[in-house]
Write a structure and sequence with these properties.
The structure is a homodimer. In chain A, about 40% of the residues lie in helices and about 25% in strands. Chain A is of the alpha/beta class. In chain A, the strands form 4 sheets. Chain A has a 6-stranded mixed beta sheet with strand order 2-1-3-8-7-6, with helices on both faces. In chain A, strands 14-13-15-16-17 form a 5-stranded mixed beta sheet, with helices on both faces. In chain A, helix 2 (about 20-30) packs parallel to helix 7 (about 155-170) and helix 3 packs across helix 4 (about 75-85).
Chain lengths: ~400, ~400
């Protein structure tokens, strides 16, 4: 069994939003052992939607569709579904009652547009959406299934979790297993030179996914339903020698991130972390605190965007700032030394750099960043030269700083 | 003329990465006046890629393709292109010389995989990629064009900016104009109730895009090349009455964001901002500093994730934390009062809440957030109840806090 995803919306086709819905849905299907044959986006017009439906039904047995179900006039999805699956529209009192209840709670009047939303194709089975006004709709045709869902991410996720995935779990006919290995500090082709010879004797698929200073490595194996044990054995026999060969570069597996894996290390060692950030403007603290439970190992951060704040709170010497500059080894060392007592932490990360587009000079061009990680006893310092792009420099700095923290923690 | 985008990669189909490349490319095409007819993703296998090529050539005259050009074995793209466009492979000395130069500079040896990358279809015109090893390839067929680009975002962007967009600019035959109006503090259907009657006498398209406490409204108009003035007039006549009707909810237009528009307001008023963040963990500071030039109006942030830091740096009274709790009106008021002198700013944002999944109670469930914005003279405080999801709560808090800052600044 294969699946296909259709996302609907002119806002995706003009690049106004990034299609995060499709990625989330694809990850859920993948975890349920269902492979995606294709993924496509159609505009807010009937012809595009019908073309996408034809293609998706050609590629797959299960089609998941999101978007185009809002209470406003830009909705062409229902019309297209009606034409594709036949039947008429019927007023869903159940849906209306639910919207009414939701709105009374929020003290919002029901508009005519919301009343119109309650007319749904009678060919569809309604899947309740407790998070918003548009329900999910499940259609069947020639032994294949389609579910249409709203495009608002948390509404789509609710419908997926409560309505779609339980229905899907029972009907998968393939076994798919994957292992993702997260590495940093080594390039894609260097990894390939080490790994490819190992995999010659192991029948698994491999993919490399480079991004901002890290490479994710995915080993995968597909088999038929019932062959779970065999598929898992084949995969495990391939993973073991690969992990052994590149262990020094591995920071985590599967759903782990650099921030979750340094969190785990801090917790194991019973250490509290703090950050003193200049060019990253709080982004490192944000990454660390995006992990649930971060309060067990994270005290806080001083975002010293202005040099006065580096002096007044972190105690960086005016002399250092004047003689060495804010972007220097001396400054990040003093930022670490200042952050430790001020934040009451055992280890501090300090970063200072020139994100751009302004602020560069021939001696310190845009992309120059100093990173320090240290405790009272020991400090590791590194200088980097990243790129010309502000947002990329912020992201690179955060990844390299977290990786330096990982090295600091594992070297102890 | 219409375009289609094909992104290639199993990592997209299994939901391991979000397809940000497609969104960026779509936005560039849209700005160049070229409408996207479709967007699709194919897996790393020849059959999927060939199917996608057939579909894209059916939908469009210009096809942009990314991904599947890395130095590793997972590359099926070149094989598929060779089959689709015919011809053979030829060694590109120009590409090899460029890779060699790049690698000497970085002190990396050239691997066999990189040598293989230099074999390129002879039917293609090579588009130089100064950011990496895989060049862009431009093909022509039956009066239609296709450009294949690497999937690493900054490499793709380089090839787009330097090779593709200049070629594309000359061949567009439509005029497309759009105006995006960013609103906050009003729902999608309430907006529709106000706007739809106005637009009945204006022949433009409208789309609503809700996300985390804000709704983007896009008015657009398409015409033929040469009708620029007429298309612009029609659009402007529709935009004016809409803007007038909803002006109190508008925080910006087109590429503006809430963080860039509050930055503009702060700059106009000559005020310096600081933040004192608990549950958002630095995310508000990150949003503010993601805007170039933020140092002109942003001093820094105290991320007081641990209550000790709220006391020691921000001067929140232990009594307040014990009696009212960290998530309370009293605490965020004291965080503002403490942040102003410590960060040396004129205005401070303070937030404290329960992002979840842990930490909730019947009186203060997950999603409870207090936000304060204030100066020495005046403080505005609001309580919110968001959702059960940690990441969403962080995002909602940031958007509502920035919107409260906007209201604070425009009310003065």
């Amino acid at each position: 069994m294969k699946a296909s995803i259709i996302t609907i919306g002119d806002e995706i086709l003009i690049g106004q939003i990034v299609d995060t819905n499709a990625a989330w849905m694809a990850a859920q299907l993948s975890e349920a052992g269902i492979l995606l044959a294709s993924k496509m986006t159609a505009g807010d017009d009937k012809k595009s939607i019908l073309t996408a439906l034809d293609r998706a039904f050609h590629d797959a047995d299960l089609i998941l569709m999101t978007g185009g179900l809002g209470p406003t006039k830009d909705d062409m999805t229902k019309t297209a579904l009606l034409e594709y699956f036949g039947g008429g529209m019927v007023f869903s009192q159940q849906t209306y009652d639910r919207i009414e209840k939701l709105f009374v709670k929020r003290n919002i009047p029901i508009s005519e547009a919301h009343r119109q939303q309650c007319y749904l194709p009678d060919a569809a089975e309604i899947i309740v959406n407790e998070m918003g006004t548009a329900p999910g709709m499940w259609f069947e045709k020639d032994g294949k299934s389609l579910c249409s869902m709203p495009g608002v991410p948390h509404e789509m996720k609710y419908v997926m979790m409560h309505g779609v995935l339980p229905r899907v779990a029972a009907i998968s006919d393939v076994v798919y297993r994957q292992k993702t290995i997260h590495t940093s500090g080594i390039g894609e082709s260097q990894l390939a030179d080490v790994i490819e010879p190992i995999l010659e004797s192991h029948p698994v698929s491999i993919a490399y996914l480079p991004s901002h200073g890290a490479v994710r490595l995915r080993l995968s194996k597909v088999g038929k339903a019932g062959e779970e044990a065999q598929v898992e054995d084949t995969l495990e026999s391939a993973v073991a020698p690969v992990v052994e060969a590149i262990s020094q570069y591995i920071y985590g597996y599967d759903g782990e991130t650099l921030e979750s894996s340094v969190g785990k290390l801090l917790l194991q060692k019973g250490l509290m972390l703090g950050t003193a950030e200049s060019c990253t403007g709080g982004y490192i603290a944000h990454l660390i605190t995006s992990v649930a439970g971060a309060s067990r190992y994270f005290r806080g951060s001083i975002v010293a965007y202005n040099n006065d704040v580096k002096e007044s709170i972190l105690g960086v010497e005016l002399k250092t700032l004047e003689e060495c500059g804010a972007v220097s080894e001396e400054t990040v060392r003093e930022m670490v030394a200042g952050a430790l007592p001020v934040l009451g932490c055992d280890i501090a990360i300090a970063v200072s750099g020139i994100s751009g587009p302004g602020g560069g000079s021939p001696a310190k061009p845009v992309g120059t960043v100093w990173v320090a990680v240290g405790s009272k006893e020991q400090v590791m310092v590194k200088k980097y030269l990243f790129v010309k792009d502000r947002i990329l420099n912020i992201k690179y700095t955060a990844v390299y700083a977290l990786d330096l923290l990982r090295k600091f923690l594992t070297a102890r």
